[in-house]
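Review the following:
>
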Amino acid sequence: MEREKHLSDKVKSVQASGIRYFFNMASEVSDTVSLSLGQPDFVTPKHIIDAAVKALNEGQTFYTHNMGLLELRQEISRFLSDRYGIDYDPKTEIIVTIGVSQAIDTAIRTLVSDGDEVIIPQPSFVAYRPCTVMAGGVPKFVPTYEEDNFALRPDILENYITDKTKVLILPYPNNPTGAIMTKEELAAIADVVKKHDLMVISDEIYSELTYGVKHTSFASLPGMWERTITVNGFSKTYAMTGWRLGYIAAPEFFAKELVKVHQYTVTCAPSMGQFAAIEALRNGDGDIKKMVTEYDCRRRFLLGEIRDMGLSCFEPLGAFYIFPSIKSTGLSSEEFATRLLYEGKVATVPGTAFGENGEGFLRLSYASSMDDLTKATKRIKEFLKRI
C-alpha cells in the first residue's frame, strides 16, 4: 500500500506545533520547571464549575442552537459592548465555538479561497499558518521588531500587500511576545486595511490580560466594524482552558456564512460548558481582577530577573509571556531552549516556534506559580554562567 498518496498534500505540508514539541520533550526530563505552555495555573473559579455541575444535574446535556445558547450570546454581546464599545446582535452576529482555535479556523475557511493571501505578523501564534494552508490560502509573514515593541508597523505592512491579499490577522495582545497595540497604532493599520479593502480577523483572546493599559478592539475603530471578524474566548481570562469555549463576533452578512462551517464541523459547543460561561460573564469580574493582579506581579518579577541576567527584553504589557533576546549568547533559539531544558532543567519555547522572525528570542510563560518562576530564574542564571 502506498500510504503517502492517500494523504492530503495540504496536511502533509503542515508541521506539528513547536510549542507542543518542546512540551513533550520536557515531559521526558525529570525535575523540570516548565514555563512552556500558555495555560493559567489557576483552577477555574468554583462558582463557574458549580454552574456547569448544576446544569448537568438538571439534565442540560443536549445539543444547543448551532450558534450557542441565546442566553450566553446575550451575555457575550453585553460584555463586548460594555468593555470595548462594539455592538453585535446576539441572535444573528455571535457564534459560540469550541475554543478560539476553532474560531480562527472557521473564520479563515469562511473568508479564504484557493490562492488568496493571508497576512500574518511574526512572531505570532502557531495556528495561523496551518489554518491558512489547509484552507487553500497563502500565508504572507510580516516581521515585527523588538525596537518597535513588536507592534505591526503600517509602512512595513504596505510592503507585503499584493492584488491577491484578502485577509489580515491581527493577534494583539500577542502570543508569544506579550506585545499590545495602542489605539493610535491600530488606527494607522486601519487606514491601510481600508485603502486595500482587506478583511481582518482580530484575535483578542488576551484582551482582558493587559497591564496599565486598556485593550482597544479593532472593530471599535471608525469603519472597521463591518470588515472585522473578532474572535475571543474564556480560556485565558477565566482560567478555562480545558473547557474549550470561545466565540466569534461578526456582522450578520459574515456570521450567516461562518455558521455554515461551524455547524458542519462541530454542530455546537458543549452545552454544560456554555452554562459555565454564562456564570463567568455575569459574576467573574472579581476573578479576572485577582488573576490579572497576580499575573502582573509575576510579570514584573520575571522581567526584572531576566534583565538582571544581562538579557535584553522589552516590557510586555499584555498576555502572560516574556520574550527575551538570547542573541548575546551566540546560540540559536532552538539550541538555547534545548540546552536549557537538558542542562538547566527549565522548559521554554524557542522563538522560532512562532516563525522565522522569532529567531534569537525565547518565550517564557509566567502563567506559573511564583515558586516555579523563582526556581526557573535561578536555574537560568546558573545555565547562563556555564555557557
User: Anything to note?
Assistant: The mean pLDDT is 95. The chain has two domains: 4-44+286-386, 62-284. The radius of gyration is 21 Å. The longest strand covers residues 117-122.
